[in-house]
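Morning run. Coffee first, then this:
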Amino acid sequence: MKDSLSQVFGQRLKQLRENKNYTQEEVGDWFNMGKSTVSQWENGRIPHATILDILASKLGVTIDYLLGRTDYLSAPQPKNKFNVANNIKKIRLSQENKDLKTCEKIAGLLSISLQEYLDIEEGKNINADLLSKLANIFNVPEFELLANTLNVNNSQSIDTLQQQIAQVENAEYIAVALEAKQKGISVEELEKIIKVIEQYQNKK
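And here it is:
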């Protein structure tokens, strides 16, 4: 049975803490909290977003990794920034919360000027740290911000998928694989897709 989000969070927090030789007391000191609070987190109690952000930063990972939404410790650097910029804009405009549809609101949440945010949607100044923050604001996994225009449908054959992947110069391994999985592609088919991506990237 798949572990719950809280279980994954607790397990990853403990593993990262121990790997970096921090005690529970030391982690608690970051927040003026006691060892017992950190112990509760490691047993599956997820703290609020501000604490998650600090934990991720101190431990050198993304919030997505801490919460089990990705197995990548850090966000991959975007290869096609204009494509990523379009994804950011589309996700912003799709938000149910009207406030999150405005550039002004997002700029404020990022603590940057409106012009700086408008530059981001033009493909400028995009980096891994920014993607992590935007994913948290929009409550989406980072791969959605990185995803390119590859569409995967259940009706498509593996050969068709392989052709599509080969045509996408900057095909992102994680974006393609996760999108395929969400569309109901089997594990066996995913493995074939992954091999094609790896073969294609090795030729570059």
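The chain has three domains: 5-66, 81-140, 158-203. Good start to the day.
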